Amino acid sequence: MDGNINTTMKHRMNIEEAEEYLNGIPRFSKKTTMENERRILELLGSPEKGQQFVHVAGTNGKGSVCAFMSRILLEQGYHVGTFSSPHLVDITERFLIDGEQVAEEEFLAAFHRIYDLCQERKEEIVHPSYFEFLFLIGMVIFKERRVDITVLEVGLGGRLDATNVIEGPEVCVIASISLDHTEILGDTVSQIAGEKAGIIKKGCPVVYDDSVPEASAVIQRIAKEQDAPAYPVNPKDFEIVDRSPSSLEFQMKRGYFSGECFRVPFVADYQAMNASLAVAAAWALQRRQTEGGFAVQNPSKRGKSLSWIGKVRQSLLHTSWPGRMEPVLPGVYMDGAHNDDGIRVFIETVRKLPCSGKKYLLFSAVVEKDYRTMIDEICSQADFDGFILTELDSYRALPLADIRKAFEGRTDQPVWSFDSIEEAFAFAREKKETDDFLFIAGSLYLAGSIKELLRGKP
Question: Which residues contact 350 (CB under 8 A, 6 or more apart)?
């Protein structure tokens, strides 16, 4: 036994040390193979076996779908695990039990179990990547807590994602698909849809966003190949009928829930689609009961169970999902939009929110995103009265000089830039008058940093 392993066996990391270790993984380990991941799970006692899953993929919206779905299941009385990413402040945000973050002690117990295994069996297995390690932690935690079902968010893509080692999910959901991570997933919507649809398993119902014909055609083809029932949700299936500064209401226009109204505590129109996907997925789970699948309450003979729909309505109304057009202070909205499609729907929301004052945007981005296209959309399509720019505290940060240059070439509005997020946020809050709106977008890293500042962490 070498010195490193000896130290491992004696020393138990605290949460800060464990997170530092995980953040350092990309320096010595990239994504491994499915076979390697399955072997690690086997050595851990196959914690994923016997668990039931709702598997959720998509370019944008999959986190919101997970939040809605988890709340629906919880309202129905189930013990629910949720695995999502990324986290905004605390790494334990990725692991929820009945909507609550797991305790640091619980996280550390699972972390050390996997860490020790990687040290003791390093001649037999390849060290998991950052995301794979976190997924393994989730599988251990949810097995230990004996959850009834886990809502599982894909990390990247679907077909080759770490989460796709699970077998036979109860239902798959594919949220909005657009061009993102093209260097990994392909440079066309059809190619990316093929990767996302890789989560569809034999006979497993799939609910999907039917907004983009090219993506829908691929999903339908793969579902047919897998003999999987496919349930499209089209934007024409619902209509937004009311909105307030903190919520919106939509009515289903056709399909199983035709005529039903649902309200969500979000102001972005796209949350109507995400909520509709979750409702349709919950309905698909009902359908599986007659086939010996997941046990949920049966609909009535008339085709609808008012009590079940009532619980769904309450679930959607009480769903929370931080960093997605979230009102964090009066007149201050924070959104995690960080790619072309995300920025597009963010702008749509900004334009629809009634504002009697000025609108300001606090913006930053990571280097690998198509920031020029995002900024071009922001400057040409939105009616902001000024831009506050900053640089992320991350090795992935896009240099502030590049951000400023992109904005100055596309807008005549004032542009202010600050080296630190703390300075930029302080300036933005000072600049904002009572009737003004301040929006924060461009990166989930930025959203996380603002969350820390609001908690009093510099």
Answer: 359, 382, 383, 384, 437, 439
Q: Walk along the chain (458 residues) and give the pLDDT tens digit of each residue.
A: 343 434 444 578 999 999 999 988 865 456 678 899 999 999 999 999 989 999 999 988 899 999 999 999 999 889 999 999 888 889 999 999 999 999 999 999 999 999 999 999 988 999 999 999 999 999 999 999 999 999 999 988 788 889 999 998 999 999 988 755 544 455 688 888 988 999 999 999 999 999 999 999 999 999 999 999 999 999 999 999 998 878 899 999 988 889 999 999 998 888 999 999 999 999 998 777 555 544 444 333 334 545 788 999 999 999 988 877 888 899 999 988 777 778 888 898 888 888 899 999 999 998 877 888 889 989 988 889 999 999 998 888 889 999 999 998 889 999 999 999 999 999 999 999 999 999 999 988 898 899 889 887 65
* pTM summary value: 0.84
Given this structure, which CATH class describes domain 3-317? alpha beta
Instruction: Pick the closest to residue 141 from 48, 66, 76, 56 (CA basis).
Output: 48
CATH architecture of the domain covering 326-454: Alpha-Beta Complex (3.90)
Beta bridge partners of 183: none
- Quick one: tokens of 456? 């009093």
